[in-house]
Predict the structure.
Amino acid sequence: MKIALGPVQYYWSRVTMMQFYESMRDAPVDILYLGETVCSRRHELRLPDWLEIAQMLADAGKEVVLSTQVLLESGQDLATMRKIAGNGRFQVEANDMGAVHCLDGKPFVAGPFLNVYSRPTLEILAGLGARRWVMPLEMGREGLEQLQRDRPDGMETEVFAYGRMPLAFSARCFTARHRNIPKDNCQYVCMDDPDGLLLRTRENEPFLVLNGIQTQSALVYNLLNELRDMQDLRVDILRISPQSEHTAQIAGLFRQVADGSLAGREAFERALPLMPAGPCNGYWHGKPGLEQLVA
């Protein structure tokens, strides 16, 4: 099993981002996804900067994939997506069907937002060039088992195994709305919350996290206890979503469990103090996503 680090979903400063990826050179991860997938107004890093980081990580022996933006809102967004698709050096994760068609039959990764829930959909994407697909966040073990039985030859399967789950995208920026400022003059307030802005219910329970135009789960999806199950299902890659602190330690725990040197339950307990919020795994078990069940 390989360990992948998904794209950073939050808005961090240029220095923070550079330091983060420098630290990932020696982290126990095999694959890194790079790029801005949430909001094009986040411009601390441009495409040439991402390519520079990609080359640095590739030189360190990592597999690098460039991720496209999920929700395209302007001609400039479209132009950037086309440049990523035509970069000519690194594989691309397509997060919408426009990116799939721009890749024009080149090998690519079918991102989790393409909503692959059936065998015919997976076969269509394979015919268009997909060599890896990322399971949708809401899909559970049962649905994955069905697709794994008949997945196309040469297709890898990747599962989002750790992190706050990106649940929805909107043309409206809820972080700016929270500050009573317009989206077009957002003053980049996302940068004030390196792990997103937590929303609580009236009963003071964690509910959701605002991350610009993206809405995330408040709880952290953690499938450390389910790794043996995923190995039985022939999952090839585990995806960890970066957080502002302890990402390398979390990746190390997944690496140890995948290698069989640490039990999933013990790794899960060690991960709890490293997480920005409590755990959940409901979707994997076919239950509401915010539930935490025993494997």
Q: What stands out?
A: The radius of gyration is 18 Å. The chain has one domain: 2-165+220-277. The mean pLDDT is 96. The longest strand covers residues 156-169.
